[in-house]
Design goal:
Elements (H helix, E strand, L loop, with lengths): L2 E8 L2 H12 L5 E3 L2 E6 L4 E7 L7 E7 L3 H13 L8 E5 L2 E9 L5 E10 L6 E2 L12
Parallel strand pairs: 1-4, 5-8
Antiparallel strand pairs: 1-5, 2-3, 3-4, 6-7, 6-9, 7-8
Length: about 140
């Protein structure tokens, strides 16, 4: 199973969590300072909220959450073969998770992330396991 990820900037995290909880009849899977995410079953959606003063109501980034590293590798290969410039594969700790991910920028500047989460982390800011290989910044 994969699901679309919608990461949005919000002015007030508590208000956004309350609204989204009622909208989707769901509770957040994770809440950290200035950050929350929901793993919504129906419709299948990974909803991520970033408290980002002055940018509320805007898209932070979009993405696709998959279940395996192989799916990330396959996506990166497909994107490359489609003549899209990717960041390459990164092993990261970012947004309170350990992930394997690849990023691509859309024509209007909207960033897309294809990723698999391996574990939770206490790290919010981006830490790339092999920084010499990284060509992008995290979603923050």
């Amino acid at each position: 199973m994969s699901r679309v990820q919608l990461a949005i900037n919000v002015e007030n995290l508590d208000e956004a969590i309350d609204f989204c909880s009622r909208l989707f009849d769901a509770v957040p899977a994770k809440v950290k300072p200035s950050y929350a995410n929901f793993a919504i079953a129906e419709p299948p959606l990974k909803l991520v909220l970033f408290e980002n003063q002055g940018k509320g109501g805007s898209i932070n980034h979009l993405g696709v959450e998959v279940q395996t590293t192989e799916e990330v590798l396959t996506a990166e290969d497909r994107l490359t073969r489609a003549d899209m410039v990717t960041t390459g594969i990164d092993e990261t700790q970012c947004c309170y998770a350990e992930k394997t991910e690849v990023w691509v920028d859309g024509p209007d500047g909207v960033r897309w992330e294809w990723y698999v989460k391996h574990a939770d982390s206490d790290q919010f800011e981006n830490v790339v396991i092999d920084p010499s290989q990284s060509k992008r910044k995290c979603c923050t």
